[in-house]
C-alpha cells in the first residue's frame, strides 16, 4: 500500500529510556553528585516524536552556577597538577565506561532529540567514544617549544598550561557529541569545566558526567548545570571565576556570549551558524552528488550547522540533479525514532518545525517547492515532523539561500562558470563547511583553496574525524573543536627564560644605570 507520507509502519518498539527514573534526583551534576536546581522553576523535556513529556526537572539558577564554578575551582589545582599520564589513564577509563553504556546513551539521545536510533547508535555514540579515546592519547602530547638559546646568554622554553575553570554552553542538536567536544579538550589539558547543556536536551550530558565520575575522574572536574540561557548561561559566561567560555549555537546568541565574556576579559571560543554550499561541477559523478546531497542535507533532520543547505549545480547537470534529488528525497522514511525502518525523525520541537515551515511557505512566493514542503499527516501528526524539502529557483539574495533554516530543506541553484560557482559558494556571511564535487583534481584543488570555510570536503559531505579540527570562518565563529588544534583554545602559553652567564652586572643594565 502506498504511503504518501513515507511513514514507517506502526511497529515501533515501545522501549524508551527511563528518564524519570534515572533523573529522579535532579538534572544538575555538581561536585560529583546529582542534585536538583534551585531557581524555583521547572522545565519539561519533551519527546519531539510524540509531543509527550518524558522528564520534568528543576532548572538551575545563579546559585547553582556559583556552586558548580566553586567546585570546579576547588578541583582545578589537583587536576592541573596531575601528570599527563594520569589524565590520560582517567580518560581511557572514561571511554571504557561510555562504551559499556553505549545503548543507554543511544536511547537517551534519541528520546530527547527525536533522532532515529540508527543515527544515535552508529554516529553520535561511536563518535563520542572515539573522541574520548583520541583525547586520552592527546593528553600526553601537550608540549611547548623546544628549549633554545635565542639571545645567546639565556635558555628559553615554552610551557603550555591549563587556563583554569572553563564555562561552556552547548546546543540541542547534538547534545552528546557537543558535551564531548566541550569537555574533552578542556579536561585533557588540565582544566576543569562547568557545562550548560540546552535545557531541551540535558539527558546525555548528565549521563556523560556520571560516566566520568564512575571512571574515577575527580569530583568537581566536570560539572553540569541545566538551566536557561538567559539565567544560567549568562551567569556562567560572565562569572568572574570562569577563565574561558566556549559556545556552540547561533550567530546571534554567539554575539551576546562574546559581549558578556568581554566584560570580564576572558578567552572566548565560538562555533556558530552555517549555510554550507554544495558545489557540483559539470564533470562530477551525478549519482554520487545526488546521494551526497540528500544525506548531507537531511542528516539529523537537517539540524546540523554543517548540513548541505545550498546546492550550486553547473548548468549541464542542473535539471537532472533536481529531478533525481527530489526522487531520492521522496524515498526517505519518516517515522518513530525507535522503529527499525525509520530514516528521518522529527525536528527538536513544534516551534522549530513551524519555523522551518515558515521559511518554506514564504519561499513559495519566489521559488518552486519541488518536493516536500509540509508536515506529514496521520500517525506522525502529533510529532514535530516535516517532510524532506527541495526548493529550486530561489534568488541568491533570498532568505532561504542566505539564512540558516536548520531543517530538512535543500535549496538548489544553477551556475555557469567555475568562477561563478565559487563566488556563489562564498556569498553568505557564514563559513563553517562546504563541499565540491568534481573528477578533476585541479578543479577540486581550486575549490579547497578558494571556498572560505573551516572544512571543505571533496566528493563527500558531513564526515568528521577526531584527529581533524572543526571550526569556522567569518560569522561561523573562531577557534577549533576536536583534534590537537583545540588545545590552542584551552591552554595558555608561558615563556620561561634562564640566565646562563651567572654575571652579576648584565651588559644591558647600562641602559638604566652607569656606562659600559
Topology:
Elements: H1 19-22, E1 28-30, E2 33-35, E3 42-47, E4 52-58, H2 62-81, H3 84-100, H4 102-113, H5 117-138, E5 154-162, E6 165-169, H6 175-188, E7 192-196, H7 203-214, E8 222-224, H8 229-238, E9 244-248, H9 251-263, E10 267-271, E11 276-280, H10 286-298, E12 308-314, H11 315-329, H12 350-363, E13 368-371, E14 389-392, H13 399-402, E15 409-415, H14 418-425, E16 433-437, H15 441-450, E17 455-458, E18 477-478, H16 487-490, E19 491-499
Parallel strand pairs: 6-7, 6-9, 7-8, 9-10, 11-12, 11-16, 12-15, 14-15, 16-17
Antiparallel strand pairs: 1-2, 3-4, 5-19, 10-18, 13-14
Major sheet summary line: 7 strands, mixed
| Structural class determined from secondary elements | alpha/beta
End-to-end C-alpha gap? 99 Å
Strand coverage percent: 15-25%
Rg calc: 25 Å
CATH H-tier superfamily of the largest domain: Aldehyde Dehydrogenase, Chain A, domain 1
CATH fold-level topology of the largest domain:
Aldehyde Dehydrogenase, Chain A, domain 1
Main sheet strand line-up: 13-14-15-12-11-16-17
Please report the number of helical segments.
16
| Low confidence ranges | 1-14
- Mean pLDDT rating: 94
CATH architecture assignment of the largest domain: 3-Layer(aba) Sandwich
Number of strands: 19
Domain module count: 2
- The rough form would be described as globular
Helix content: 25-40%
Any overview of this molecule?
The protein is globular. Mean pLDDT is 94; it is low at 1-14. The strands form five sheets. It has a seven-stranded mixed β-sheet, sandwiched between helices. Helix 4 (102-113) crosses helix 5 (117-138). The protein folds into two domains: 26-140 and 164-271, Aldehyde Dehydrogenase, Chain A, domain 1, CATH 3.40.605.10; 276-458, Aldehyde Dehydrogenase, Chain A, domain 2, CATH 3.40.309.10. The protein is of the alpha/beta class and 516 residues long. The chain has helices spanning 19-22, 62-81, 84-100, 102-113, 117-138, 175-188, 203-214, 229-238, 251-263, 286-298, 315-329, 350-363, 399-402, 418-425, 441-450, 487-490, and strands spanning 28-30, 33-35, 42-47, 52-58, 154-162, 165-169, 192-196, 222-224, 244-248, 267-271, 276-280, 308-314, 368-371, 389-392, 409-415, 433-437, 455-458, 477-478, 491-499. The protein is built from 16 helices and 19 strands.
Amino acid at each position: 500500500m502506498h504511503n504518501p507520507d513515507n511513514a514507517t509502519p506502526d511497529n515501533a518498539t515501545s522501549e524508551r529510556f527511563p528518564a524519570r527514573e534515572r533523573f529522579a534526583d535532579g538534572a544538575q551534576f555538581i561536585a560529583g553528585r546529582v542534585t536538583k536546581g534551585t531557581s524555583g522553576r521547572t522545565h519539561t523535556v519533551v519527546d519531539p516524536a510524540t509531543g509527550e513529556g518524558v522528564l520534568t526537572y528543576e532548572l538551575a539558577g545563579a546559585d547553582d552556577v556559583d556552586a558548580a564554578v566553586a567546585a570546579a575551582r576547588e578541583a582545578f589545582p589537583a587536576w592541573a597538577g596531575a601528570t599527563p599520564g594520569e589524565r590520560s589513564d582517567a580518560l581511557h577509563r572514561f571511554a571504557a565506561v561510555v562504551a559499556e553504556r553505549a545503548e543507554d546513551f543511544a536511547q537517551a539521545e534519541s528520546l530527547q532529540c527525536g533522532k532515529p536510533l540508527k543515527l544515535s547508535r552508529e554516529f553520535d555514540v561511536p563518535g563520542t567514544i572515539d573522541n574520548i579515546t583520541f583525547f586520552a592519547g592527546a593528553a600526553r602530547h601537550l608540549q611547548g617549544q623546544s628549549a633554545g638559546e635565542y639571545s645567546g646568554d639565556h635558555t628559553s622554553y615554552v610551557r603550555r598550561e591549563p587556563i583554569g575553570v572553563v564555562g561552556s554552553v552547548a546546543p540541542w542538536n547534538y547534545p552528546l557529541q557537543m558535551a564531548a567536544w566541550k569537555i574533552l579538550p578542556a579536561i585533557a589539558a588540565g582544566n576543569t569545566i562547568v557545562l550548560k547543556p540546552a535545557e531541551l536536551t540535558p539527558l546525555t550530558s548528565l549521563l556523560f558526567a556520571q560516566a566520568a565520575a564512575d571512571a574515577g575522574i575527580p569530583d568537581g572536574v566536570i560539572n553540569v548545570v541545566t538551566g536557561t540561557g538567559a539565567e544560567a548561561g549568562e551567569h556562567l559566561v560572565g562569572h568572574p571565576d570562569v577563565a574561558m567560555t566556549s559556545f556552540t549555537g547561533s550567530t546571534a546568541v554567539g554575539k551576546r556570549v562574546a559581549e558578556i565574556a568581554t566584560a570580564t576579559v576572558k578567552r572566548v571560543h565560538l562555533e556558530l551558524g552555517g549555510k554550507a554550499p554544495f558545489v557540483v561541477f559539470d564533470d562530477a559523478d551525478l549519482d554520487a552528488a545526488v546521494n551526497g546531497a540528500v544525506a548531507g542535507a537531511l542528516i539529523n533532520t537537517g539540524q546540523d550547522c554543517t548540513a548541505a543547505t545550498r546546492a550550486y549545480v553547473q548548468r549541464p547537470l542542473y535539471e537532472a540533479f533536481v529531478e533525481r534529488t527530489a526522487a531520492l528525497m521522496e524515498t526517505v522514511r519518516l517515522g518513530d525514532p525507535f522503529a527499525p525502518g525509520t530514516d528521518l525523525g522529527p525536528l527538536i520541537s513544534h516551534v522549530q518545525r513551524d519555523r522551518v515551515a515558515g521559511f518554506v511557505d514564504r519561499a513559495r512566493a519566489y521559488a518552486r517547492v519541488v518536493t516536500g514542503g509540509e508536515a506529514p499527516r496521520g500517525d506522525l501528526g502529533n510529532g514535530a515532523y516535516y517532510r524532506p524539502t527541495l526548493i529550486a529557483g530561489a534568488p541568491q539574495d533570498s532568505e532561504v539561500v542566505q539564512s540558516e533554516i536548520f531543517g530538512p530543506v535543500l535549496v538548489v541553484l544553477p551556475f555557469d562558470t567555475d568562477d561563478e560557482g565559487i563566488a556563489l559558494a562564498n556569498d553568505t556571511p557564514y563559513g563553517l563547511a562546504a563541499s565540491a564535487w568534481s573528477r578533476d583534481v585541479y578543479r577540486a584543488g581550486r575549490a579547497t583553496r578558494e571556498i572560505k570555510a573551516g572544512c571543505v570536503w571533496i566528493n563527500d559531505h558531513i564526515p568528521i574525524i577526531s584527529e581533524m579540527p572543526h571550526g569556522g570562518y567569518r560569522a561561523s565563529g573562531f577557534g577549533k573543536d576536536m583534534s590537537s588544534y583545540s588545545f590552542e583554545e584551552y591552554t595558555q602559553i608561558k615563556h620561561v627564560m634562564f640566565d646562563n652567564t651567572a654575571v652579576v652586572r648584565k651588559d644591558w643594565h647600562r641602559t638604566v644605570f652607569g656606562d659600559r
